[in-house]
Model the fold of this input.
Amino acid sequence: MPLIRKARRFFDRISNGKALSRRSRECVGTSIGYHAIVEAFHNNLVTAYHDVEIQRRGFVGKLSKLNEGSPMYMSALHLCYSEETWEGLHALVKTSLSQKNQARCRVHHGTVLECLERLRGNGIDPSSIPVNDRGEITDHFEDSQRLEKQRCLERLKYPIRSTIGVPFCEDVLLGKGTPFQIHTGNRKLRKIVVDRHKEYEKAKKGRKKVIAQECVDAIRSNGGLFLKQDGNKWFVVDIEVAIKKVGALFRSLRLRKADGPK
Done:
């Protein structure tokens, strides 16, 4: 039985046109961001592109430069294709890689099911790639939920990093304005605060801090962090700042109730 490797994945669609170079840069940036994470080196990275509809004349020249400039270490690279039009493109991808990465590159040709079985033979679980027997992406929502669950488990398993590139849906973002308030993690925290508001109002000062701490722990138990933005990065705030944030939410809720209809 082959070893089924855990893997981080992201899925993208590339189409020919004016936005190609911009989308390519974004793809490389996302890949580099994942590779910069310590867990990615332990769990490997699978980058999957589906249903691309590329016209080779406008793409192949940029692809060579794209691969040459990608400062990535790849433990393995598997290229799968069913249509003959992909043969030349995959050959170009392989020749644009460094010698070390060329040695790790494998090209598979056949039907989608045949390619998935060959990936299984190389230790990659086909169920981790959400495509059907026609090569079409199946359920974006289910795959998104699976990735969120995987990220939550990784948050709980590995040491917390001081900086975060992209906030998780369970994270609480510190800041003012609609983008912060509508974030999923912020809404979940407000729901926790509303549920415990009566208990908080009846509690004494020392107990109030304990309740606020328990609200913070409820967020953290699901893999969430309290983050503050600085430039293009997010930084994890310490526990005392998180407790003060929760306390401020309780006070804001009290004021809204006091100003509400009598």
About this structure: The two ends are 68 Å apart (CA to CA). Residues 50 and 115 are 14 Å apart (CA to CA). The chain is about 50% helix and 15% strand. Strands lie at 8-12, 45-49, 77-81, 105-109, 163-164, 172-174, 226-230, 233-236.
